[in-house]
Amino acid sequence: MQAALPRPASGLIERDCSGTRGYFAERISRLMRIFALLLACASAVWSSVRVEAQGSRYTLVTLIHTNDLHGRVLPSDENGGLARAATVARRIRAEHPNVIWLDAGDIIHGTPEDYLSGGIATVSAMNAAGVAAATAGNHEFDFGADVFRRALAHAQFPLLGANVRAREGGQWASLPPYAILDAGGVRIGVLGLATLQTVDLQWPGRIRDLTFEDPFETARKLVPALREQCDVLVALSHLGSVEDERLAREVPGFDFIIGGHSHTVIADWRWVGDTLIAQTGAYARALGRIDFVVRRDEAGKAEIASVNGQNTRWSDLNHQAMGIRFPDAPLIPLDRSISPDPDVVEAYTPFRLEAERFLSRPIGEALADIPTGGDEPPAANLVADAVRDMTGADVAVVDTKSVSGGLRAGPLTAGDAFNLIGGYTRQHLVTVRMSGAQIRKALQGEFVRKGRVELAISGARLELQPTPAGPVIQRMEAAGRPLEDSALYTVAGQAYVITNLMNAGGPAEVLAEPSETTREAAIEWIRKLKRVPAPDTGRIRFLQ
Ligand SMILES: [Zn+2]
Questions:
Q1: 87 C-alpha vs ligand 1 centroid, how far in Å?
Q2: DSSP string covering 30-94
Q3: What is the pLDDT of residues 335-382, one digit of tens each?
Q4: pLDDT digits over 482-537, tens only?
Q5: Can you state the angle between helices 24-40 and 314-322, rounded to 10 degrees?
């Protein structure tokens, strides 16, 4: 018995067909025969990307793919970016029409454009690029599920998540489990799988309407029925490359697994059994490309006849006959020599301009350089002070690694405050109530877990004894007095920092769910101070 399939992405074809699956061994044995057939055909025939031979029809399909864009649309001073990928995509589409662009998730991020638009900026750029389908990555939920829902409504392509469900059951928002896309009469099934890590990485309240089910179980349930409906099956996975290999081993039926999340650069053809696994790294530094030929016999049965890169290189043998030059590696580098695609630039420009207006607003003046780095980065202390001021908490804690930029003495803009947090995302602030004993246990647990101090603190002072197991708290003050074990304090910080503290110190009463971020806190703090001195240091002292 096969599981009934849930609804596919709307507006996409869903027809019955008797698609059958060829096996790897059979494909190999047919290769030479097919090469002969293909070579016998004039290249003019391939302009229609179909070859009719001995009652069978051969159709060329090209999948191009990206993953982990993290909002990189127009990188100014580095390689990569969606706009460059779109330029190469345009070239490939000029070669033949059966080109499908898939993206494996982590689309939106803490760039100024995505921050101000709630991710609509990058989604709009992907619309212009002609992305055919994408999978929801964990970062799609960085601004909360409600913000993602709004961004989803702007996507002109299906965003998929077969294992992401509404808590009350059924599909969540417009996040269908799969899509069936048409490429020259070949039905390409695309099943979207999201990482379970989303649950650990995001604050529970921000994804409370959702459940994330086991992606392997979901795939096992859906693949047999989905195979019946399509000629080629792709897992568009945001699981990471290790999990992708496990998926290929444990869930038979995928022709291709196009992955993301682990930022793995798969620079050569990686086969696991019958399944080709691909991933491009991140930030569209490369565009992935998979070319394959689907053979359909007189009875309508279809199978993949050959794949670029499979054993004997199909591309080398017949690219001249087909009039198409195939790459001899799965990744096409997107370096600075490639100009950005004008359609993508045009779609993104309104968001860029809005971001520039926002970032250029003057907000104050730094009276001294406030650098990052060192045991107690002054810039991180400034952000911790800003968080304490915005939340009104007794104690604020900030991940020092998230404060990746410093301030230079002189006039400050909102952009300078924004850049304190650099590219970091998931910056929403949470306030909880903890006892003194709990704070001590929580901080001590974090110092031991990391083996060092990676927190900036405001409203408290610590004396630490370095030990091989990590720094040990000898003395702690809060609100100017020794920390009292039984007293209650309010503690604010980035949601993931507070989660880590609760993991180490035990559950705490949540007083304020995430809303504002470290960025707003920094901007408001500088605006309030107007003239910003270097924040005091010595809040965390190591005893010798
Ligand atoms: Zn990810």
A1: 25
A2: HHHHHHHHHHHS-HHHHTTTEEEETTEEEEEEEEEEE---TT-SS-SSSS--HHHHHHHHHHHHH
A3: 999 999 999 999 999 999 999 999 999 999 999 999 998 889 999 999
A4: 999 999 999 999 999 999 999 999 999 999 887 788 999 999 999 999 999 999 99
A5: 30
Rounded to the nearest whole angstrom, what is the distance from the C-alpha of residue 138 to the centroid of ligand 1?
A: 5
- How remote is the CA of residue 104 from the centroid of ligand 1, in Å? 9
Report CA(383)–ligand 1 centroid distance (Å): 26
* Cα–ligand 1 centroid distance for 180 (angstroms): 24
Helix 120-129 with 145-154: angle, nearest 10 deg: 30
Instruction: Give distance in angstroms: CA of 41 to centre of ligand 1.
Output: 44
> Alpha helices of 360-456 — where are they, by DSSP H?
378-391, 414-420, 436-450
The helix or strand, by DSSP H or E, that contains position 24, with its residue range, turns out to be helix 24-40
Q: Does domain 24-353 have CATH number 3.60.21.10?
A: yes
Give the strand order in the sheet containing 395-399: 455-458, 395-399, 488-494, 429-435, 509-512
Q: How far is the CA of 261 from the centre of ligand 1 (A)?
A: 4
* Residue for token pair 């869903």: 14
Tell me the CA–centroid distance for residue 345 and ligand 1, in Å. Answer: 25
Instruction: Please state the domain extents for the chain.
Output: 24-353, 361-542
Q: Which CATH class is domain 361-542?
A: alpha beta
